[in-house]
């Protein structure tokens, strides 16, 4: 979604800001802009489309400024135009960038218009700029003006303001949208994601909810939500600097698909061995929490939700503990009952998904006492706000369509199954079996990736299709859901997933030769049932693409193309069968010529509702 970069320095910061925006491009956006302060002037440049157009425009006019703020916008209020792009300016003096949504913007707008302000855009953000300008009339101090102004905002914001009359200062405020301060030597920075600042610093302060900060070249002053000046920890970032490099792959998504064996090795490292799970890998208090746990509630969105649904099958089948999974945006707006001795598990690649964060907050309010975040970003809001956290260690994921984040989440959830199961009479041999399966996983994924050219061939047959159906049973049902999500995200082909047993309850009516049916079929106890479902489709003239274990006895014929997936142990099959479905969506998107890494209308980290 929207991205923010800002800098106060002695040198020209234009290229730092532009590089920062480039590094945030993967998050999804539709326009970009920069405001620079130079020789007492505030110069704003904005463009719709890619950061490259903005860069060309700034470079053509030799843009200069030692203080500046920059933004990539993902439209919420107001269409995609230069006027609606950020930064927004008030009284030709203050420039503001903003991530999030000011929900009471209509009321604020009316009040500000009556105070004599003219609005140039349709955005909610412009109310921030004018509100601060209005406060400046009263306080004459930018920090105090922002502290006063934010009290009038309802909604979510990560916002940065500069004043051309005070070119050495940025004031920033965080509520519901992350902001991180980057510390330099004689210069300081702000961004919505540390990735943007890695070329200039590795020392970061992650602002907390409600923080407002004044940043100059040499100082950082942070005021917390109670109005007190506070110190926040300085964190040395371990994030790879060059995650932004495609390493020779045509797309980040393909690179990330191929990274899965190695990142999963990393996920398992020092945590799993043939002797068992290492102690306390979920945190010092985890053992006592898991010993008490009788019910697991999992909350997440999108792909992370699919990981949660898979874990439900595992937790109930292997660990014998009751589990429910819910979409965060549903949970946060309904009344629910908290069963005794519950463990709340949130799953998120980014750790900044607005709905998941709000769901966690609500869960704590209604009585969940133990919370575990399974997350890919250390220091993210979700991690900081959960009692326990477990890092997926997927490395930075740039492609909007989540791949390695999903499979590492699944590996973590299998570890969680054993960690809880060993307190719940999970038989020793079952624990051992799952451990062994996990240890074979990286090699199995390497073998499965060798199916790429076979899957690429098959993708040709989807290029003229508009709809598709994904089928799976048991713990492969969420994998079918994830396969369908991947296909729609990047190829824009309508895809729906069904638990195969549901076919005859409705979707069978859709079957014809124009509706490809993709089936995931490992060799498990549900195989016979799956064979019957396949026959139901065949009898109605459907065309099937079956990803099956060799032993599963599916043969290619005129109505069915079978791709044999390497045989693997049952508990890791959902992870292994994810790979061909990722490859299928990738190659179909390639044929359709879509923007694989930044599909239309989507954002990497969904920080607004
Ligand atoms: C995955 O391909 C999606 N882009 C999306 O569904 C994503 O998984 C979802 O927005 C949740 O994000 P999170 O894992 O960062 O919380």
TrEMBL record:
Catalytic residues (UniProt): 2, 604
Gene3D superfamilies: Glucose-6-phosphate isomerase like protein, domain 1, Glutamine Phosphoribosylpyrophosphate, subunit 1, domain 1
Residue ranges of every copy of the SIS domain listed in the record: 285-426, 458-599
Pfam families assigned: GATase_6, SIS
Any one Gene Ontology cellular component term annotated for this protein: cytosol
Compartments, as annotated in UniProt: Cytoplasm
Domain Glutamine amidotransferase type-2 span(s) in chain numbering: 2-218
Protein name: Glutamine--fructose-6-phosphate aminotransferase [isomerizing]
Biological classification of the source: Bacteria, Pseudomonadati, Pseudomonadota, Gammaproteobacteria, Alteromonadales
Gene responsible for this protein: glmS
């Amino acid at each position: 979604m929207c991205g923010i970069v800002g800098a106060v320095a002695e040198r020209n910061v234009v290229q730092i800001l532009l590089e920062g925006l480039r590094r945030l491009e993967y998050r999804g956006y539709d326009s970009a802009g920069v405001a620079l302060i130079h020789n007492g002037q505030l110069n704003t440049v904005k463009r719709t489309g890619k950061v490259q157009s903005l860069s060309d425009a700034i470079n053509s006019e030799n843009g200069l400024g030692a203080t500046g703020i920059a933004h990539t916008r993902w439209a919420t209020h107001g269409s995609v135009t230069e006027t609606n792009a950020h930064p927004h300016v008030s009284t030709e003096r203050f420039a503001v960038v903003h991530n999030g949504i000011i929900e009471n913007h209509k009321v604020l707008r009316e009040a500000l218009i009556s105070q004599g302000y003219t609005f140039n855009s349709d955005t909610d953000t412009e109310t921030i700029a004018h509100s601060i300008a209005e406060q400046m009339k009263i306080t004459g101090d930018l920090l105090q003006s922002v502290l006063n102004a934010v009290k009038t905002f309802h909604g979510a914001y990560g916002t940065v303001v500069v004043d051309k009359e005070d070119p050495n200062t940025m004031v920033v405020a965080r509520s519901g949208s992350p902001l991180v301060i980057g510390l330099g030597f004689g210069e300081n920075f702000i961004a919505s994601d540390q990735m943007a600042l890695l070329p200039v610093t590795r020392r970061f302060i992650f602002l907390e909810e409600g923080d407002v900060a004044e940043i100059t070249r040499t100082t950082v002053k942070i005021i917390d939500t109670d109005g007190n000046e506070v110190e926040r920890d300085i964190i040395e970032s371990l994030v790879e600097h060059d995650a932004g490099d495609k390493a020779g792959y045509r797309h980040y998504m393909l690179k990330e698909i191929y990274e899965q064996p190695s990142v999963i090795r990393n996920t398992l490292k020092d945590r799993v061995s043939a002797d068992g799970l290492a102690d306390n890998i979920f945190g010092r208090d985890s053992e006592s929490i898991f010993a008490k746990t009788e019910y697991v509630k999992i909350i997440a969105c999108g792909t992370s939700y699919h990981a949660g649904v898979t874990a439900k099958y595992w937790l109930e089948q292997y660990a014998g503990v009751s589990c429910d999974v819910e979409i965060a945006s549903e949970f946060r707006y309904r009344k629910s009952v908290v069963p005794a001795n519950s463990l709340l598990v949130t799953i998120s690649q980014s750790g900044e998904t607005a709905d998941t964060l709000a769901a966690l907050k609500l869960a704590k309010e209604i009585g969940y006492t133990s919370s575990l975040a399974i997350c890919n970003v250390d220091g993210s809001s979700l991690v900081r706000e959960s009692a326990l956290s477990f890092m997926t260690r997927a490395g930075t994921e740039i492609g909007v369509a989540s791949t390695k984040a999903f499979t590492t989440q699944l590996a973590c959830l299998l570890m969680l199954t054993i960690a809880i199961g060993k307190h719940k009479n999970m038989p020793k041999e079952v624990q051992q079996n799952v451990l062994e399966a996990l240890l074979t996983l990286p090699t199995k994924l390497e073998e499965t990736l060798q199916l790429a050219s076979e899957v690429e061939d098959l993708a040709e047959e989807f290029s003229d299709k508009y709809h598709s159906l994904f089928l799976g049973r048991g713990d492969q049902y969420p994998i079918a859901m994830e396969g369908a999500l991947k296909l729609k995200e990047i190829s824009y082909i309508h895809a729906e997933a069904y638990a195969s047993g549901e076919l005859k309850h409705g979707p069978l009516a859709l079957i014809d030769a124009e509706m490809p049916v993709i089936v995931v079929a490992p060799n498990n106890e549900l195989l016979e049932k799956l064979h019957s479902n396949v026959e139901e489709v065949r009898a109605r003239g459907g065309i099937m693409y079956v990803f099956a274990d060799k032993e599963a006895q599916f043969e290619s014929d005129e109505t069915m193309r079978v791709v044999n997936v390497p045989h693997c142990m049952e508990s890791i099959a959902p992870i292994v069968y994810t790979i061909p479905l990722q490859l299928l969506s990738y190659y179909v998107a390639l044929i359709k010529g879509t923007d694989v890494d930044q599909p239309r209308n989507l954002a990497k980290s969904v920080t607004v509702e």
